[in-house]
Amino acid sequence: MKVWTNTNTLDGLIDDLVITSSKQEAEVALLGSKPITLDEFPNLKGIFRAGVGSDNVPIEEAKKRGIKVEFPSEKTINFILEETANFACYLIMRMLYINVGSLSPWEKYNRSFLGNRKLLIIGKGKIGTMVMNKLGSMLKILTYDVSINSQDELEQMIKDADCISLHIPASPENKGFFGASKLSLMKNGASLINTARGSVVDEDALFKELESERIYAAFDVYWKEPYEGKLKKFHPDRFFMTPHVASTCDEFLRGSAEDLRKLVQKLKNI
């Protein structure tokens, strides 16, 4: 079966499969985070999403057309979830220690004890909960989830937080969720971490705040990828960027490649 892809995530791991650049010939579509239009794939029999996000997968339309949609296996997903949480923890710690001193001139900056710093986790799904559990012994944790807390509670939490980590899905109601009003509530010197989706933050509003040199941010996800937007001018000091790699460990990659092979074999047998 011929596999078409819009991601290089599994490059070098699926050389045994037949890869095509033709949407007309494609029988299986391997997706990263970019969307596809099913009308361009007349012979498509299956879709495999190399990740856990589903916002770019036309699930309902595919079902109507008899196209099988699959995601990584539970074993592979566990690697994705935990490594994304680990990476979020790395970004959080990096930003909490962003201003510790200078080499030239040799100077040490005053800072608060880490155990007194407050981390706000927005979204208590699997990844957000993992981050909470991993950093709970090191920081004071605040959590907000739309199913539990009120908007008024969130406003005060944003004001109190030294670092805010986003773990909410991309959805129409979450577009620009963290916009100008919420950004303005952040205390001076606080950091915003995003390993969820670029669209949940208002890009223009974040640009204005970073330009004012009032806050910091660290993102692994963007509004368009590869990201070449205006926020790139602030990297690496005020806006630390990584190229959507939070979940990209060997175990996730090899597991996804094997899960894709199983889907291809399953479709061959139909």
Straight-line distance between termini: 12 Å
Give the quaternary arrangement of the chains: single chain
SSE run: EEEEHEHEEEHEHEHEHEEH
Shape: elongated
Strand content: 15-25%
Residue-averaged pLDDT = 97
Helix/strand structural class: alpha/beta
- Low-confidence segments, given as residue ranges, are none
How would you summarize the topology of this molecule?
Elements: E1 2-5, E2 18-19, E3 28-31, E4 46-49, H1 59-64, E5 68-70, H2 74-96, E6 101-103, E7 106-108, E8 118-122, H3 126-135, E9 140-144, H4 151-160, E10 163-166, H5 180-185, E11 191-194, H6 203-211, E12 216-219, E13 239-241, H7 250-268
Parallel strand pairs: 1-2, 1-3, 3-4, 4-5, 8-9, 8-10, 10-11, 11-12, 12-13
Antiparallel strand pairs: 6-7
Outline the structure in words.
This protein is α/β, with parallel strands linked by helices. Helix content is about 30%, strand content about 20%. It contains seven helices and 13 strands. It has helices at about 60-65, 75-95, 125-135, 150-160, 180-185, 205-210, 250-270; strands at about 1-5, 20, 30, 45-50, 70, 100-105, 105-110, 120, 140-145, 165, 190-195, 215-220, 240. Strands 9-8-10-11-12-13 form a six-stranded parallel β-sheet, with helices on both faces. Strands 2-1-3-4-5 form a five-stranded parallel β-sheet. Strands 6-7 form a two-stranded antiparallel sheet. Strand 6 and strand 7 (about 105-110) form a beta hairpin. Helix 2 (about 75-95) packs across helix 3 (about 125-135) and helix 2 (about 75-95) runs antiparallel to helix 7. The termini are close together. The relative contact order is 0.15.
